Structures
1.
Amino acid sequence: MYFNRQLRSLRFCKGVDGKILFAVGDYKDVYHQMQANPLVEIVTLASNRKWLRYTGRAVFETEEKYTNLPFEEHPQLRKMYDKLNANATIFHLEDAKAQIDSVTGNVIETLE
């Protein structure tokens, strides 16, 4: 499998309806890259100095109850997106796996 491996920051993450949802602007390169290749890896450094790697296939949500979530949480984004004539696209990962690594790269735990 080939995952999109470019550094991109995601400002929105929320658990809803048993899914972990993320948002990305439809005007950004990463959105178009995910459309072409939906296999993604999301990485974060936890406060306990361990890496969390979350991989899977991006599935974009189309229901309005999801698409408005970033604007409900961060109302200032609405003005920015309106100026750009853009939308926030919401996605979750299907067939997802999570892996916890030490800062030295050793796998501590894999979750499916």
2.
Amino acid sequence: MSWLGEHRAFIVEEFIKNGGSPVATECTFLIRFGLGRQEAVPDKKTIYRWVSNFRQTGSALKQTYPGRPQIATGPENVAVVGATIQKSQRHSARKHAAALRLSDRSVRRILYRDLLMHSYKIATAQKLKERDSENRTKLCRDLLNVRVTDVVCFSDEAHFHPSGTVNKQNFRYWCEGNRRELHQRAAHDPKVTVWCAVFNFGVLGPYFL
């Protein structure tokens, strides 16, 4: 229960008047605030704590402590992280933390809370043709009519580029807003393709091409 300052002050005064008796103090507390015997009152441990706080600090109110100052996320480090991000927006928070000798958690807190930045991921966009919508609708209807005895196959592939082309699954850039940044790459650069298919009776692959 949350006790008010009025309750705490009354307890301290009555405890001193009653010669240090917590039982007598509880009784007078019930009468003063019009409480029933089944209602909550400050227990013995609480009464002793309030009196002890009053004797040490001159107040029966709950003590508040400033705690350890947040040096890692202070104004100086916020400015340093902001300047570093502007120079290298494509580096991960972990790399920035290692370079600045700060914890990864502190750097992320500064990025999100103080600099209001977000981590954006590259999304692959493909231009749709006029017949694409019709073809997709037709495919969905055909799949709905597939019988259980028919063969169903779903396949996919992934490309791995030895030239160092960015993998969109791992790439991020930090910015206050999505800049819709374009990432260009060669259309026919050397790569290794991994293909795999899933049938209704099992998995085929993977195959390396």
3.
Amino acid sequence: MAFTAFLQQAMLKHFLGTSAYTFPTGGVYVALFLVPPTTSPPTEISGNNYSRIAVSGWSTVLQSSTTIASNSSTVLFPTPSSGGWGTITAFGIYDSFTGGNLLFWGNLVQNTVAQDGSSVQFQTGSLQVNIT
């Protein structure tokens, strides 16, 4: 899981007392990518019934001196239409349903092919965020 430059700067400013970070008022949203978002701005999937999904519940656990946060319920995306979305290789967490700032992103352990009529979902605990 990678922190974006935006989040790194926001955290440093917040903890050093330069500028307070404001928690996203609408929660956080999971996004999907065909190519890992290593460029700015990243290229998120669009069209064919795609939208980001809100994740309101996260569980945290300490594993081998690393705190890991994971989704506490299944994240289910809408069913792709009109030919699907393609092969999904990465996911991201944004602070807004549309636009906004990418906070974290990570590669999928196994790529997912999102075809017309298939569903894309992450089971409880499978989206993990950690600080290493």
4.
Amino acid sequence: MTIYAVGDIHGQKSRLEEVLDRVDRDNVPGAEVVFIGDYIDRGPDSRGVLDTLIAGQAEGRRWTCLMGNHDRMFSNFLADGTITHPSIKSGLPWSHERLGGLDTLASYGIDTGGPDMQAMWDAAQEAVPQTHRDFLSGLPLYAERDGLLFVHAGIRPGVALADQVETDLIWIRDDFLMHRAAHDWMVVHGHTAVHGADHRGNRVNMDGGAGYGRPLRVAAFEAGEVFELTPDGRERLAPGDWGAAPAWSA
């Protein structure tokens, strides 16, 4: 069984199209594609990314789309105008350029040139289709597949899956990233931008930093191996220098 994982897209529709083409050229019939979350913000075409994912699912493609923290922030804004979250360590609002919320609103044709967030919220009520709202609100927090656990940010080490909380699943960093022991699964995640798909033995980080202008990453998980799909084809992704690699079944 082959499962592909796509890292944080962050409004980069053209790069999404590139990695989907790589999946098609890899040509594994019936394979599932899991998108790790953060479809929006920072990039130029968040609306286009959501259109692509929604259309693919409607066509019956085996695409599983998970919730990311940026997706949650956009959903919260659409619901009641909230632009802050206690898990943002910097304290910056979603509308700050570092978080990229205004880039998302602009992709819907909303005027983001002024400071009036109420006016932007009012405009979003008209501009954001209900299909996009439903998609965002219905995103699952994780997907468990044959010894693999796909999740946006990570998990709280030592906590049963049923007891994990959303805040950790879409926001956690240090406590998860610095944990070197094996988990009950190979955890496949994003959220923390690195410079390429990063295999640490007990986890694989798929956030290659597309939101910062770097390539979008996609990898195939197959028969206990990880292969990054590059423009030239598959390249085996070996574990880094720490972390015991738990086995998982194909």
